[in-house]
Amino acid sequence: MDLGYAGRVAVVTGGTSGIGLETARILIEEGARVAVCGRDEARLEAARARLAEVRGEDALLAARCDVLDKAAVAAFAEAVAVWGGGVLDLLVNNAGQGRVSTFASTSDDDWRAELDLKFFSQILPIRALRPLLDRAEAPAIVGVNSLLAYQPEPHMVCTSAARAGVQSLLKSLAAELAPRIRVNSIVLGLVDSGQWQRRFEARADRAVDRETWYGDLARSKGIPLVRLGRPEEPARAVVFLGSPAASYITGASLEVSGGVSRFI
Question: Which residues contact 240 (CB under 8 A, 6 or more apart)?
Fold first, then answer.
């Protein structure tokens, strides 16, 4: 199936590693020109080098940007406008990590930082890039969210609450921006990432190999597919939802979790 990305322009925030990097790679493979941003200069350069191998430098813009810095996001939007010809077909909001904490252990500052990260990593890019989306023929926004939005965990109470709020925000935007801009999301279960790699490296039993450790983790979490997701798997879901092939889908959330959810 042709997803219809040839000649289109996309932005992927948090596009220097993991799901964001894989999303950018697949979009470029599908024929899109892709702008990625991230805070870490070393990761940004590594992502630039990897993505340039797919279709060359002309298909790529890599810029340093903190998506919680309003001025930086505005400058990134200006750079995208110049580079992309004043039009943006797809915005993928992917920035943000989880915070492990209970209600008792989460300070007021932690709450404010988590709510700020989860909400404004969506709000600021959408505000800054909406004029470019409005000029596109069939624009779309895809938010990368977590299954915690629907299925909160007691050891991640702060992040769970923030994720639920973001899901409500995206649902509201799907109605407010329709029929001009489609807004969808994916909700993730456990996906292999730098966070889980660091936990594996810090394992107590050094004799346990990576495959066994990850398998035990998946079983302990009750994942029916008995493994963690690979970054390219949610990335493919993002690419589909953001494409013209998903033209009658808006306000939807697609679960990518290996079947671990318990809600209906």
Answer: 3, 246
Q: Tens-of-pLDDT digits for all 264 residues of the chain?
A: 899 999 999 999 999 999 999 999 999 999 999 999 999 999 999 999 999 999 999 999 999 999 999 999 999 999 999 999 999 999 999 977 788 899 999 999 999 999 999 999 999 999 999 999 999 999 999 999 999 999 999 999 999 999 999 999 999 999 999 999 999 999 999 999 877 888 888 888 888 889 999 999 999 999 999 999 999 999 999 999 999 999 999 999 999 999 999 988
Q: What's the CA gap between 171 and 134, in Å, rounded? A: 19
3-class DSSP state of 58 = helix
* Residues in Cβ contact with 67 at an 8 Å cutoff, skipping those fewer than 6 apart: 13, 14, 37, 73, 93, 95, 120, 121, 124, 125
Ordered by where they begin, the domains of the chain are 9-191+231-255 (3.40.50.720), 192-228 (no CATH)
